[in-house]
Write a structure and sequence with these properties.
single chain, mainly alpha
């Protein structure tokens, strides 16, 4: 029952909250779509944190798109076998994940440690910042540590199929039963963050 809730019901609740929340905010509170600018208060940490975060997050998102959305058989047809894909996902993914994590650490430290930036931040700014930091950390942990401990685990045979099935309304919670806990935690936190972004 818990599996059914976490991997079938909760994703749809989060997606609905995300979509309805954004529509409601667009219609009734357009000016709340962004955090207040704090660039004039402190620039150095913002500059480096922002550069590192964006330099890392774009390849991370592209890697997730390839891993979750594109079936393994399509990549094999293009000459990318399992071994080559796994090396790219673990090593290249780890490098860009760590770059993203360093950027998020700088941005979070800036928001929490510089008094004027903290004063300008709303509670939701801080919550979203911490959620993003947690997501990036869990993603790095899942990629680096879990892949070292369970190198035979292939998320394209479980998580990817579950993820794609969500969008055709036939999710299978059983696919997530044997998934290592670090990957489950990372995806659970991402689902919660989806809800948070809608009300942020």
């Amino acid at each position: 029952m818990l599996n059914q809730f976490l991997w079938v019901i909760l994703p749809y609740i989060c997606m609905a909250t995300f979509i309805i929340g954004h529509i409601a905010r667009y219609r009734f509170d357009k000016l709340s779509w962004t955090a207040k600018s704090s660039e004039f208060i402190e620039k150095k940490q913002l500059k480096w944190g922002s550069i590192l975060f964006h330099l890392g997050i774009v390849p991370v998102i592209m890697g997730h798109f390839v891993g979750l959305v594109i079936p393994a058989s399509w990549l094999e047809a293009l000459g990318v076998n399992d071994h080559l894909y796994h090396i790219g996902a673990v090593y290249i993914g780890s490098v860009f994940g760590i770059i993203t994590l360093i950027g998020m650490l700088l941005l979070t430290a800036r928001r929490l440690s510089i008094k004027n930036v903290r004063r300008l931040s709303s509670a939701l700014d801080i919550i979203v910042n911490i959620f993003l930091l947690l997501i990036v950390f869990m993603g790095c942990y899942a990629t680096i540590v879990t892949n070292a401990v369970t190198p035979t685990f292939d998320y394209r045979e479980t998580i990817s199929i579950w993820f794609r099935n969500l969008f055709v309304f036939s999710p299978n919670a059983d696919l997530m039963v044997q998934v290592p806990i670090a990957f489950k935690n990372a995806y659970s936190i991402r689902l919660c963050d989806l809800c948070t972004l809608a009300v942020y």
